């Protein structure tokens, strides 16, 4: 991995594939790291795309910044990282919180966006109940660490049947969650509790958009993905069967097929 200081924070990232390939930035969710995207990096680089996968501040090998980290902080980090490595317009995609960071990036840096990939995420602003939940969870993680939380949510992060059927995936997801610094996870939770509503921004976007969702997603069900799809004139919707909240990890072949088809047919044409 490569390390760069952006916005005063040390960020670690991978930059793989041909330097002249269409650049794709993939943003992990909470509480994971860039390795969540390993199957996508393999498929995309083999197809000739350049793929950048950062560890968000507070996660993986990046610097932990306590307090509260807004989605806009993450989006600004990505913009600064693109400046550092000399990329202008990119395809940017994310899963769950990473999808919300992707929408924030579209809101605040639209001139940098070539296309969007929104996986298992919601554009709706946080509710008062949700704010209380996220702040309480932040307090809990600081007090107890990540282990108990990881064990509690593994069968929501991936479909329960995949915990058994895909033990390699379950172990990877658990390892990422357990390895996340509680201070980083708590800061992201507090910032995410303040997220704005992205529906107006999405409705106005003119770039190609791929909306992906696992058929059995516990957190953002297919009905949410369909609502997001209806907002965006240029969007496509793909439902990944036999997957939950992390279809790129649970069913990588199906996810990669959808992503590559979108890139080939929509992004190259759109420019």
Automatic annotation (TrEMBL):
Entry keyword annotation includes Hydrolase: yes
Domain AB hydrolase-1: 23-247
Gene Ontology MF: a single term: hydrolase activity
UniProt keyword list: Hydrolase
SUPFAM superfamilies the record matches: alpha/beta-Hydrolases (SSF53474)
Pfam families in the cross-refs: Abhydrolase_1 (PF00561)
Name recorded for this polypeptide: Alpha/beta fold hydrolase
Lineage of the organism: Bacteria, Bacillati, Actinomycetota, Actinomycetes, Kitasatosporales
């Amino acid at each position: 991995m490569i390390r760069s200081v952006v916005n005063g924070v040390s960020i670690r990232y991978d930059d793989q594939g041909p330097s002249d390939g269409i650049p794709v930035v993939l943003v992990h969710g909470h509480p994971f790291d860039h390795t969540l995207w390993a199957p996508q990096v393999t498929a995309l680089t083999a197809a000739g795309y350049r793929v950048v996968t950062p560890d968000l501040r507070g996660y993986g090998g990046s610097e932990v910044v306590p307090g509260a980290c807004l989605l806009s902080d993450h989006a600004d980090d990505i913009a600064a990282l693109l400046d550092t490595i000399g990329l202008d317009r990119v395809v940017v995609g994310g899963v769950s919180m990473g999808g919300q960071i992707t929408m924030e990036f579209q809101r605040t840096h639209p001139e940098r966006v070539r296309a969007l990939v929104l996986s298992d995420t919601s554009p709706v602003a946080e509710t008062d109940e949700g704010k209380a939940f996220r702040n309480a969870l932040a307090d809990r993680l600081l007090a107890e660490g990540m282990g108990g939380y990881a064990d509690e949510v593994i069968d929501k992060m991936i479909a329960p049947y995949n915990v058994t059927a895909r033990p390699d995936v379950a172990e990877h997801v658990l390892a990422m969650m357990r390895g996340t610094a509680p201070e980083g996870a708590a800061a992201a939770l507090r910032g995410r509790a303040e997220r704005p509503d992205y529906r107006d921004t999405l409705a106005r976007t003119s770039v190609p958009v791929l909306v992906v969702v696992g058929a059995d997603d516990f957190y953002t069900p297919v009905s949410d993905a369909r609502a997001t799809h209806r907002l965006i004139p240029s969007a496509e919707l793909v439902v990944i069967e036999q997957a939950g909240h992390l279809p790129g990890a649970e069913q990588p072949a199906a996810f990669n097929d959808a992503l590559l088809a979108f890139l080939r047919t929509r992004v190259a044409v759109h420019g």
